Amino acid sequence: MTKATSMPIIQVRDLLKSYGSVHAIKGLTFAVGKGQVVGFLGPNGAGKSTTMKILTGYLQPTSGTAQILGIDVMRHSIEARKHIGYLPENNPLYEEMMVMEYLEFVAQMRQIPKSKRRMMIEKAIHECGLGPVVGKDIGVLSKGYCQRVGFAQAIVHEPQLLILDEPTSGLDPNQIIEIRSLIKKLGKEKTVLMSTHILSEAQSTCSRILIIHDGKLVADDTPLQLTQQEGGIIYVVVAPKQGEKLSKKQVLEQLASIFGVTKVEPINEYQDHGVAMMVGYDKEDPRADIFQKIVSANWILLEMRRKEITLEETFRRLTKE
Ligand SMILES: Nc1ncnc2c1ncn2[C@@H]1O[C@H](COP(=O)(O)OP(=O)(O)OP(=O)(O)O)[C@@H](O)[C@H]1O
Ligand SMILES: [Mg+2]
Predict the structure, then answer these.
(1) 49 CB under 6 A from ligand 1?
(2) CATH (domain of 282)
(3) 51 with 2: CB under 8 angstroms?
(4) Which residue's CA is the closest to the ligand 1 atom numbered 26?
(5) Atom from ligand 1 closest to the CA of residue 51
(6) Which pLDDT does position 1 carry in this prediction?
(7) Same-domain pairing of 238 and 293
């Protein structure tokens, strides 16, 4: 592999940012490789926007380094920014400008040569589906179209990396779906780092998820791994053989004795048909052992299934105070 292809698109090392006495980020280290679509999750105030502002050269970190394609964002800000398209939180736009006028202004600011400007603007307009509104003032556009204008300004200079700070925030459900499919389309060609509070969105759009909490990285994995590594819950219903009796206590004791089981709790609504339990575990799926235990005790296994852990549950566990 050549050096160029193995170089990460984003490399962040020991990044720290304090606003006076507020320590917004407290030592972040991560790298993002080419072509990844990375979800950047965390509760309000976790440090997502701060990190993104540093990556895009809008904020100086207190210490640590950030590189885009190997270029230091502090020392060579202009050079690094050429490779980045940035859609900031709340997407600030010039409301009194026409869409076309605004994109021309952005292209000029981006120092796109005059000979290429028209062609690159047309391409961005096409990619972002802005055709019907190019002659309109930004101030009269729907929020969905405003967001598309934000995307167009972010891609007009054809950057390799897109940094999107809550790109679907404040949109209605139809607009969310449209913007999400735009992100998916752009993500086929570009590396994307996007923050969102919609966890299902991260799960469906992103190939990798970073979770930050209180300025520190608390998870870095694929959406699937994040929900499967967590252990889980098995739902079990046990009944006695005909003519025999079975107490909750007996079942609870047997299940609790299984290696790897962390918690056993009875569920009341199944009393009449048998004894129902929720069995928590932290590592290996204990279903085979549960089955053996029930057979050895000479009981009947009426039901057994694994309850899926959602990304919401993982997020809650990692980020609650
Ligand atoms: N300009 C500023 N001055 C002082 N404190 C700030 C400033 N900007 C952010 N902070 C603080 O830094 C911390 C991180 O803020 P940041 O905006 O990065 O969080 P976030 O993860 O983007 O949150 P949200 O989900 O609400 O957008 C918060 O405690 C915030 O109050
Ligand atoms: Mg933010």
Answers:
(1) yes
(2) 3.30.70.100
(3) no
(4) 44
(5) 18
(6) 44
(7) yes
Share of the chain above pLDDT 70, in %: 96
Task: Quote the CA–CA distance of 277 and 282 in Å, as a whole number.
Answer: 16
Establish if 200 belongs to a structural domain: yes
- CA 44, 46, 52, 54 torsion-angle sign: positive
- Domain assignment of residue 257, given as a range: 230-307
Measured CA to CA, the distance from residue 24 to residue 18 in angstroms comes to: 5
Look at residue 3 in the predicted model and tell me its pLDDT.
47
Asked if 34 and 5 touch (Cβ cutoff 8 Å), the reply is yes
**Per-residue pLDDT reduced to its tens digit, 35-81:** 999 999 999 999 999 999 999 999 999 999 999 999 999 999 999 99
Closest CA to ligand 1's atom 1: 19
- Domain membership of residue 314 (yes or no) is no
* Boundary residue ending a domain (227, 257, 286): 227
Q: Is 22 in the pocket of ligand 1 (CB under 6 A)?
A: yes
- Whether 318 is covered by a domain: the verdict is no
Domain count, the chain: 2
User: Which pLDDT tens digit goes with each residue over 130-142?
Assistant: 999 999 999 999 9
Neighbour count for residue 130 (Cβ, 10 Å): 21
Verify whether ligand 1 is closer than 6 Å to residue 286 (CB atom).
Answer: no
The residue whose CA is least distant from atom 7 of ligand 1 is 19
